[in-house]
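Q: Could you predict the 3D structure of Adenylate cyclase?
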Amino acid sequence: MPDYNGRVLAYVGAAAIIFTGLKTHTFAEWLIWLIPGALLWPHTVHVLTRRTFFRHSARIRHKMLLLDCAIGGAFVGTIGLIAMPSLSVMMMLMFSCMLVGGMRQWLFGILWLTIGASVGVALNGIAPSLQAPLPLSVVALLSTGLYICITALYAHQQARALMTAKSQIQYQREQSIALSHKLSKYLSPQVWQSIFTGERDVRLETQRKKLSIFFSDIKGFTQLSEEMEPEALTELLNHYFNEMSQVALKYGGTIDKFVGDSIMIFFGDPTSRGPREDALACVSMAIDMRKHMKIMRQKWRSQGIKTPLEIRMGISAGYTTVGNFGAENRMDYTIIGKEVNLASRLESLADPGEILISYETFSLIKDKIMCRDKGEITVKGFGRPVPIYEVVDFRRDLGTERSFLEHEHAGFAMYLDSDKIRGNERSDILQALEEAADRLRQDDD
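A: Sure. Here are the predicted structure tokens for Adenylate cyclase:
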């Protein structure tokens, strides 16, 4: 119940108790002035706490309730601690303290009520008889019961309204989460995360940053599109995009867009581990995609797709403009710049299964990845020829200690990455290889 209404109800009950006490000659006649005081005090408190400088005071309702406790205690002491009216006033005050401020407010309320009662008793003494007349006891009980019941009813209604509001908030929250997850499908996870955590504002804004840019497309896709039905082709393309997206996200790449059978990914925004680490992650992703493509080719071949699909990739590192481009009502988070054009050009020049990188990228990753010099090319926007390199493999995977092996022939395909094989799987793989070797030997005999 709002403080004003609750205080009016309590003090009206107190005025009724005083009036009855005067009529039964239980209270001293001079206490009659407390009746208008009790009826006016709630309105005085309302004006003080809402229209004066007190309204800026912290926890003003708690402080005013303690003042009520002191006033109530003084009244109890003044009437000489007569049992029923004293208990009535104390119960209303203690109930209010517990409802408004919990145990802490209740303890402070008892303290101020005790202080007020002590002052009242010191000034007027204890009544000769602590027993109240029947009419006074009845009015005291009715006043207390009415106050507690009405206050409890309001608290119950407030609790129900709060539960309803909580349910609505929870429903809206679940709806917002569901909607945000649906919208996240149209954005790169890094971009979606930065927007919904408040790290990035949705406005037309760009900045210059050093990024690593990746382009890829499928060699032979045009021929395949002429051989397959549109529904089957769509399923194959979606499977390819899904697999490559998982690889990109594993290395922390920001997926910019899918165009036809092409993928554009960049590293370095919205999160970056530094130009060197971003470039290494980008090239590592490309190597992993090339290996992963071999697995998918085997699966597609088992599904009757005979066209040998391979991807070609181009990577460039350098400063680009990244951010939100477009209009206020339709934006696209992407990158522009000559390094983007260079990466696209490298992808178009690459042979099937080849990864071509720019000199800037090569200089950042050459200590961990073996590359082969491919000469120079002329690219629009660059004043001089651009040196390019072909990615061979990780240096750790070259030589006799390499973890990756592959071999393909008509009727045979093998892909082995020993670093990813768990110990309990090795015996099954060895048995399968031995059975395959025995079968080949029998065919030779």
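Q: Anything worth pointing out?
A: Residues 134-184 form the longest helix (51 residues).
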